[in-house]
Amino acid sequence: MSLEKLIVTIIASFAQSLAATVIIFAQIRSKKQLNKIKFLMIMFLYCIVGFLFITNQLRFILCVIVISLILYFILKIKDKSVILYSFNTQIILVISEIFASLILVIFGIDSIKIVNNPYYNLIANILISALSIFLVNISFIKNILNKEINVFKKKNLINYLYVFLLILYLIVSKNGLEFILKSNYYINILFVIVIVIIFGIIMINESKYEQLKKENKQMYNHVTKYEKIITEQGKANHEFKNQLMVIRGYAQMNSSKLIDYIDSITKDTNKTQSSYLISQLNKFPEGGIKGLLYYKLSTMDEKKIKYELDVETGVKTKLNVLSVNMYKNITKILGVLIDNAIDASKRSKSKHIIISVTKEKSNVVFSIANTYCGKISLDKLGTGFTSKGIGHGYGLRLVNDILNETNSFEVKNDVHGNYFISTLKIKIKKKKK
């Protein structure tokens, strides 16, 4: 090996390892300088070996493996995220490589010289490193990386990375740095663009799903406040009636008109929708359900949807044994089912929703019946199908995730006449004595 080639290799290796270090630490946000130095030194050694002994066809996949091993064993990041960080690093380097090569070709440098001439090869590597560092410091790119990391940290999504790595490896290994201006080169660029677009679509969908989960959590905290109001209102109604009875007793000896008046007030109070609703909601224990129903029924009022709520006596006793986590899952499922009912009912001619809650042996059953328009394919329900169009269906996915995590719930769908009926069965386990 000539001294000239050795110097070029050292400089190019340092530029590449520096770029990789900047990209990695932009993702993991570690401020420990010692970790940065360790990573830079090991990457520098790998890049030297890579430039001297590893072919272009193997560098992409080997670099992902090496970065992952460094993160896992040296920086002690003990999870699948190391694959994600390595993948992101290589994506940014590949994109920078494409732009750098196009810039050099535009300036009249022959693509063969970029590969074979050590000076042009050095310029190409320095330009790639500079572009990579520039890209990872753009706010827009940072935001995309942060969202992608948050989304893909889910275990079931990390597996997508293996597919993308394989496809990108096949693309990059085809030509390496041999950027010859012919059709297959442009086809390869097109493939990279398509993969990035697919990657982006998955990110957007998962981001919406995560946002739904976050909103659902906020809603649970919100409806517990409603619950306290409902409970206090129920107590106030009960106390008010007691006071009326006391007044009736005192007035009985003096004026029959006063008695008739008070009787009519008591009768009117019993007939009011508010009192009936409060009495039905108070058949649920504390935990979020009554607050959720009050919130959703208020939404129905706003959308001018007629509704009925009927809760069987004894439901409260059965639900009292449930854990806090069970209540959270119930409110999540009910929230999705009622939202779907509201969405379908408001588009129908006869806007009507019926919610009934019954007890069956060791189960509590919520039945939500709503009017709808159009046709519903029951065979597609439960498979991610939604009649709401693109951008919806995340609620059903949230329900399916909960059903997959526990066997305490069962959800069924049916159509009866003009009503679509969703049934949630809650399996109550008896407390061990």
Got a strand count? 5
Which series of helices and strands comes N to C?
HHHHHHHHHHHHEHHEEHEE
In whole angstroms, the N-to-C terminal distance is 81 Å
**Strands in their spatial order, largest beta sheet:** 1-2-3-5-4
Residue ranges: pLDDT <50 for 5 or more in a row? 176-183, 382-392
Strand content: 5-15%
Which structural class do you get from the secondary structure elements? alpha+beta
Mean pLDDT: 78
Number of helices: 15
Query: What is the CA-atom radius of gyration, in angstroms?
Result: 32 Å
Q: What best-fitting shape do the alpha-carbon axes yield?
A: elongated
Biggest beta-sheet profile: 5 strands, mixed
Q: Specify the oligomeric state.
A: single chain
Q: Helix amount, in percent?
A: 55-70%
Topology (elements, then pairings):
Blueprint: H1 3-28, H2 33-53, H3 56-74, H4 81-106, H5 111-116, H6 118-136, H7 139-152, H8 155-175, H9 183-251, H10 256-271, H11 273-281, H12 289-302, E1 306-311, H13 315-319, H14 324-346, E2 352-360, E3 363-371, H15 394-405, E4 409-416, E5 419-427
Helix pairs in contact: 1-2, 1-4, 1-6, 2-3, 3-4, 3-8, 4-6, 4-8, 7-9, 8-9, 9-10, 9-11, 9-12, 9-15, 12-14, 14-15
Task: Give a description of the structure.
With 433 residues, this protein is of the alpha+beta class. Helix content is 69%, strand content 9%. It has 15 helices and five strands. The protein has helices at 3-28, 33-53, 56-74, 81-106, 111-116, 118-136, 139-152, 155-175, 183-251, 256-271, 273-281, 289-302, 315-319, 324-346, 394-405; strands at residues 306-311, 352-360, 363-371, 409-416, 419-427. It has a five-stranded mixed beta sheet. Helix 9 (183-251) packs across helix 11. The model is unreliable at 176-183 and 382-392 (pLDDT under 50).
